[in-house]
Write a structure and sequence with these properties.
single chain; alpha/beta; Rossmann fold; Helicase, Ruva Protein, domain 3; five-stranded parallel sheet; two-stranded antiparallel sheet; 7 strands; 12% strand
């Protein structure tokens, strides 16, 4: 709606995890490097955590996009609220594209073992990524994931496991010391600082075709103060500010008055829910 008014080729602040828009702060670069190190150097498992909306999912998608089409067979679980049998069945389905209903745990494990050996024989690596892992309710599911790491030869793991989740995942894992000890590589994504917040906004605008800054310096200060550096919140407030600027037909850069109105409207809406 507002893209033509602001001379943009597309909306710069959508909430979908589009890898084209990833902003590489120092922290995001380090998280990505640790993901690659875990898998490429066959380290077994990694834990990636962060506050809601801090960029975990988009970083994981960049990582997976780099691996797709190569020698990696990938199972990506984005809704892991499953019991141990259901999770294992879903992993098998994503790795083999075959359903195995009504199988016992022993039968599923044999099928999974055959997949690992087949991948190994074809010089393919097996990767399992569990996103939103903090939503796993059954501790038995975590135990199943730990046991999958027992698939190894004398000198190497037969699979890599990446657990991605919000901060509470770390608290959950304290109840599972045997699994926690396997996650020797880890990283926690914090919110952006003010400089990175400003760079993040300008980066996304540039990707969307903007030739100039659409937000004043004061407006960006308010965005940082309101969002506390959380990218998803930054996206939401910037998107609404551009919509409001279009409605009011204001000149750029958008000023602090526009930002204050958008924030007031947002807070009023929150108070109603």
């Amino acid at each position: 709606m507002y893209t033509e008014y602001f001379h943009l080729t597309e909306k710069p602040f959508d909430l979908t995890p589009d890898p084209r828009y990833v902003y590489y702060s120092k922290a995001h670069e380090e998280a990505l490097l640790r993901l690659f190190y875990t898998v490429i150097d066959n380290k077994g498992a990694m834990l990636l955590t962060g506050l809601y909306g801090c960029g975990k999912t988009v970083i994981s998608r960049v990582f997976l996009n780099e691996l797709t089409g190569s020698k990696y067979e990938i199972a990506l679980i984005t809704n892991p609220r499953l019991n141990s049998n259901e999770l294992l069945s879903e992993i098998i389905y994503q790795l083999s594209n075959e359903l195995h209903p009504n199988k016992t745990k022993g039968e599923l494990l044999r099928i999974f073992n055959d997949i690992l050996i087949s991948n190994l024989n074809m010089n393919k690596e097996t990767l399992i990524v569990i996103d939103e892992a903090q939503s796993i309710e059954d501790l038995g599911t975590f135990e199943e994931l730990r046991l999958l790491l027992n698939y190894q030869q004398n000198d190497r793991f037969l699979l890599s496991l990446i657990l991605i989740g919000q901060t509470e995942l770390r608290r959950r894992l304290k109840q599972l010391p045997q699994l926690r000890q396997r996650l020797l590589i880890e990283y926690h994504l914090d919110p952006l600082d003010e400089n990175d917040t400003n760079s993040y906004i300008e980066h996304r605008l540039a990707i969307a075709g903007s030739k100039k800054s659409l937000f004043s310096e004061n407006a960006k200060k308010i965005i940082y103060q309101y969002s506390k550096g959380i990218p998803r919140v930054i996206n939401g407030i910037c998107d609404m500010a551009l919509l409001e600027g279009f409605i009011q037909k204001v000149k750029i850069p958008l000023n602090d008055e526009i930002m204050k109105k958008v924030i007031r409207d947002s807070q009023l809406e929150e108070s109603r829910t």
